[in-house]
Design goal:
InterPro entries: Gfo/Idh/MocA-like_OxRdtase_C, Gfo/Idh/MocA-like_OxRdtase_N, Gfo/Idh/MocA_oxidoreduct, NAD(P)-bd_dom_sf
Order of helices and strands: EHEHEEHEHEHEHHEEEEEHEEHHE
Strand content: 15-25%
Number of strands: 15
Structural class: alpha/beta
GO molecular function: nucleotide binding; oxidoreductase activity
Family: Belongs to the Gfo/Idh/MocA family.
Radius of gyration: 21 Å
Keywords: Oxidoreductase
Pfam families: GFO_IDH_MocA, GFO_IDH_MocA_C
Distance between the termini: 20 Å
Length: 394
Amino acid sequence: MPSPLTPSSGDTSDIRVGLAGFGPAGSFFHAPLIAATPGLRLSAVVTRDPGRAGRVRADHPGAEVVAAAEDLWDACDLVVIATPNRTHVPLAAEALKAGLPVVVDKPLAGAADEARDLVRLARDRGLMLTVFQNRRWDGDFLTLRRLLPELGEVRRFESRFERWRPVPKGGWREAGGPEDVGGTLFDLGSHLVDQALTLFGPVTHVYAEADVRRAGIRNDDDAFVALTHRSGTRSHLWMSAVAGLPGPRLRVLGSRAAYVKWGLDPQEERLRAGERPGPADFGHGEDPRDGWDVEPLDPRDTERRDGWGTEQRDSWGTEPPERWGTLGAEGDVRPVRTEPGAYQRFYEGVVACLRDGAPPPVPAEEAVAAIAVLEAARLSASLGQVVPLPAHGE
């Protein structure tokens, strides 16, 4: 367990956060959520791009712009790494060696052995190391957690992150080499595999297909992964940039019922539009690590609901009824309210870990397990055969 953070002043002032990287991950996800989280203060941002530096100064006027990650070590109490994937491991290691707790954007590393080395380093130093697996706080995922008892024994879990991007954008994710850890398998697949492991536990066998469908890119843009869990559940995961008509976001088949949900969680769209969770959206539930302690609202209770049929204080991350999923079996299906998505709970969990010694919001060991599955999937796709996971560690 990492030691709680005690500010050098000995008071309860905000935790100073140094953010390495102000690309899409840093600017749309991390910086807004950090700025909106009670107990955190964005104090410095690393970027050498003049345009991005200007956006930092405009959107976060209290944050200093610095040119290199090492400039953060003496300027913050917590380091958040939102740089290109190939830099995650070396930057996280340097921050830990400097005595700083670390948040790393997914994927933690491109190889499970590298991730294990980081976990050992953090453990030896008594420092928090956690991974920004924000999709654990998607509304559809939180809803599925709540519905699991009604489904019975889950036999098949189908999950998709599919997009329509027929024209490549370029950049390291699409055109980089293996050292860049690009492609949909490690990008979107990091979320899908993490969710499958969180729901249904360890995996024994992995089968995968990964293809390059568009001209001018080097990394996979269309992939499928099949997992056999020790529990007996089978997970089928799709990730694609070339899906003209995406399939259902979730299709979960249980022994008593099924849950089907279409459409992506709205939080990313809202963050990209410049919105942030408000003060009323923080502090819900007893455990900042999760969002499945929120009881579903009674549909007959209209006094506490807004026009979308959701409790007014849960405005962030809510979905209108027409986007809700359905639960049941053939001939007996009903719509089910989507739980409000809650990305803010990740950084709430970071504060609780550093201030109170609570467990990190995403244990780094769980990220290692997901990377081991992704490595096995990459091998399976290259060999065209099922890969037993224990051969690659867990």
